[in-house]
Every structure is written in C-alpha cells, then in structure tokens.
Design brief:
This protein is an alpha/beta fold. It contains 12 helices and 11 strands. Among the domains are: 74 residues, no CATH class; 75 residues, no CATH class. Helix 4 packs parallel to helix 7, helix 5 crosses helix 7 and helix 7 runs parallel beside helix 8. It starts with 6 loop residues before the first strand and ends in a 9-residue tail after the last strand.
Length: 331
C-alpha cells in the first residue's frame, strides 16, 4: 500500500460497555485501501468484522467507543471528526450497503423517493432533478421498469431488488469508498451471484474502493483482491486472496478453509473448527491458542505480532502476514 492510501486505519481499538467494564472487541487493527482496491474482512461471527466497519464511519452502537487509533480518509481522521463533518462524509464520500435492506429502508416511502432523498441530501439537485437521478441510478443497478419499481414500497420488492435499491442509494452521491456488510447473506445463490457481479461492475465503472465484510470465503475469492482474516478482534492473517487462500500461514485461516464446502473436492466433507470463538480481544497470548492444534506455552502467553517476526519464519514479503508464532504454508 502507498503512503497516500484512500483509507488508512491504524492501531484501531474499539471497546463495548458491558456493565461497568469496557471490553475490547477490536484491538490494534490496521488496514489500508487505495482507490479501486477491494479488501475482504472475513471471520466467524463475533470476530469484529462489522464492528470494524461501523467504527470507520462512527456508527457504533451506544455501548461502543473508539478507544484508540486513527481512521484516516482523504487526509482526515474520522475517529476525531465532528458530527457535521461525518454527516457530509457518510453517504457522500463513503457509501454503505448494510446486511438487511428492510432494516434501513423506510417502509412507508416508495423506494425511488428514498433514493432521490439521498441525492438531495448530498447535492443541490431540485426535486425533479433528484427523481431523474434516482431513476438513472435504478437503471445503473439493473432494476426493472424503474418508473413502476420506484413507486413501490420495500416490502413489495424481492430481497435482491431491495439490496439493489440500497446499493443505488449508497452510490447516489458518487462516493470514493463503498463499505458492504454481508450484502448477500439473505439472498439465494443465483441472486447472490448477480449482486456480486453488480458490485464488481460498479467498482470498475466508478473507480470505487470496496471494503467487504463477510463470513463467506467464496464471496471474497470472487470479489476482492486482498483479504484480512479476523479472529477475536485482531487480524490473524492478511495478504492477497491468492496467497492467503492458496498458502495459508495461520492455523485459524486453514481451519476456515477446511470448514468451507469445496465443489472442486467431491466427496470431501467440510471440517468444523473445534472449540468456541474467544469472547473478546483481551485474551492473553494468541486468542486462537485454545482451539489450535499447534499451540504451545509461548502461544498461550505471548501475543504474536502480525509480521511474524517473533518466529523468524515469516518475512512478510509480498504483503502476506500472519500473527502466528508457528506459521507455515499449506492447506
């Protein structure tokens, strides 16, 4: 990554209030995205993926707080930006596609009008101009019969159509970065494929950087250039999709790959990862140690560096890094 990355997150730490305690849920997380880049954040539920995405645009739940770190976007630290500055950036320079369209769309307003409202919120367009722009956006995301579709309410559309409406709103103001939180989770396989192809096309046409949160390794393989594997609020491994999936160096990454169905290996059943995920990012040593077949006393007491410098076995050449005391290759 260059020093002028579009998005540069450095040493991000996020806590969640539980009673009187502030529990760390994201710890020492650093990622970069250049213009046009696509990075996938993967991991089990509770690994901190969605919290990371929400922290970037400061949309954490009431119990959440950025305790430390920087979120540099276009030369501005969003972790310390004012509410007014954030309102201009959210939906303007950064578009967000959430997991559940029904949760973000207004049930009593036609979807075309909702897209038009987003256009007006980030431009000086007139009402008629915003409606025309909304129709153009609906065509761009391949919604059918945009005049009729625009008059419909969210519940009258299919799941795939609702997600296209959300994507249209997300790109309405011409953002430079698109954040997508599990955008295909509730869709069937055919519609999921269509939405992924749409995101890839929009990324190419609009020059968007994409940060994609998902638990689906196949989605990352199809959509992203690079991947960051998260476990217990930390990045366990990161690099190009080809290097991480082709030669995983962290035992957690290998476990995820073994747990994923593989159509190229007929008759080979997926294998689950033994044990349960760590509850927070505050674990001593390597958080994956209780579930790792290669763990030893060092793993249980010393937190591994992402560079792998402690083991001397991982140089990080090519940007493939793993936070593991005993890294290796192979699946």
């Amino acid at each position: 990554m260059t020093g002028s990355a579009l998005l540069s997150v450095r040493d991000l730490c996020v806590t969640m209030r539980q009673g009187r305690a502030a529990v760390p849920v994201v710890q020492d997380l650093s990622i970069d995205l250049d213009t046009g880049d696509a990075l996938g954040l993967v991991g089990e539920s509770g690994s901190g993926k969605t919290t990371t995405l929400r922290a970037i645009v400061r949309l954490l739940p009431a119990a959440g707080r950025i305790r430390d770190g920087q979120v540099m976007f276009g030369g501005q630290d969003l972790a310390r930006a004012s509410s007014r500055e954030l309102r201009a950036i959210r939906g303007g320079q950064i578009g967000v596609v959430w997991q559940d369209p029904l949760a973000v769309l207004d049930p009593v307003i036609g979807v075309g009008e909702q897209i038009a409202e987003t256009v007006r919120a980030h431009s000086r367009a007139s009402r008629s101009g915003a409606r025309a722009r909304a129709q153009a956006l609906m065509r761009q995301v391949e919604l059918p019969d945009v005049g009729q579709t625009g008059r419909r309410y969210p519940h009258e559309l299919s799941g795939g159509q609702r997600q296209r409406v959300v994507i249209a709103s997300a790109i309405a103001a011409g953002p430079r970065l698109l954040l997508a939180d599990e955008p295909t989770t509730a869709l069937d396989v055919t519609v999921q494929e269509q939405v992924l192809m749409l995101l890839a096309r929009l990324r190419a046409e609009l020059g968007l950087a994409l940060l994609l949160v998902t638990h689906d390794l196949a989605v990352v393989a199809q959509t992203c250039d690079r991947v960051a594997v998260m476990y217990a609020g930390r990045i366990a491994e990161t690099g190009t999709v080809a290097s991480v999936f082709g030669a995983p160096r962290h035992h957690y990454t290998r476990g995820l790959l073994r747990a994923a169905p593989r159509i190229d290996r007929p008759g080979v059943l997926p294998e689950g990862i033994a044990g349960t995920p760590a509850a927070s990012a505050a674990a001593r040593g390597c958080a994956f140690a209780p579930r790792c077949p290669a763990a030893d006393d060092v793993c249980r007491t010393v937190t591994p560096a992402l560079s792998g410098a402690l083991s001397g076995a991982l140089s990080g050449a090519g940007g493939h890094l793993a936070a593991c005391h005993h890294p290796g290759s192979g699946s």
